[in-house]
Amino acid sequence: MKLAVITDNTAALPDCIQGHPDLFVIDFPIMMNGQTYYEGHNLERDDFYQAMANSSELPKTSQPALTELDDLLHQLEDKGYTHVIGLFLAGGISGFWQNIQFLVEEHTQLTIAFPDSKIASVPVGLMIRNVLNWAQNDLHFTQIVTLLQDQIERTTAFIVVDDLNHLVKGGRLSNGSALLGSLLSIKPILYFDDEGKIVVYEKVRTEKKALKRIVELVKAFAQTGDYEFSIIGANADEKVAALHHLLLENGFADQFELAQFSAVVGVHLGPGAIGIGMTPKMPMSFTNC
Fold this sequence. Notes:
Layout: E1 3-8, E2 23-26, E3 30-32, E4 35-37, H1 45-54, E5 60-61, H2 66-78, E6 83-86, H3 96-99, H4 103-106, E7 111-113, H5 122-136, H6 141-153, E8 156-160, H7 165-169, E9 187-192, E10 198-204, H8 207-222, E11 227-233, H9 237-249, E12 256-260, H10 263-269, E13 274-280
Parallel strand pairs: 1-2, 1-6, 6-7, 11-12
Antiparallel strand pairs: 3-4, 3-5, 8-9, 8-13, 9-10, 11-13
């Protein structure tokens, strides 16, 4: 088996798999001020937040071109790959995952799995790291897909945003419009549900209380199994540091990866958003990178 893994630029990839020869990345574009941008090509993350702050309209994102993925699959066939796993932005917040399923039948020379990650950012990167490690350890393709699906089903994230307008106007928050009238009196905690949709988990009064509540939720998760945790911000370094400190104060070991949401995810969450991802540690995978 020669396995290729494909993802998109919303995944936060661990350093240990950056540039891996069997890993391929396609890009979600950002449209802003009449221009199209691709993070890491003609747009850097810090510049994006400054440009978004100066823009009169909220930026928009689009799906990668289906032809780009189709062409890549043809290239993988030509390079001798036999199997492909694609992990992309959650199907609950992007139609890309659903729209690409027909390609599985179009490329009969490849054995392809496109599971719905149901998540974004660091957790997706950890899934990809595990898939590459499992392949290196000579697990059969069906074993890899089974382990991956188990990891997907037991992964989630909690999020607190500064401004729900980004999620509501982008259509990424289920029933979010009902909250807009009460934003001054609540700070909702959001999470990825079982379908990979961003929904309201709980309503609290202030951001300080929201962060304390997240610590309680992380404690509850930690009691149910062995997890990898990541604290992820959207131009919110001070909040990331504050939540990290709060977790350490509450007895957690310093086991949290600190990361940044991609600019594409930042479009929908807005600046100042902070999240914590929780993904189970899986058998036969390395977690020290």
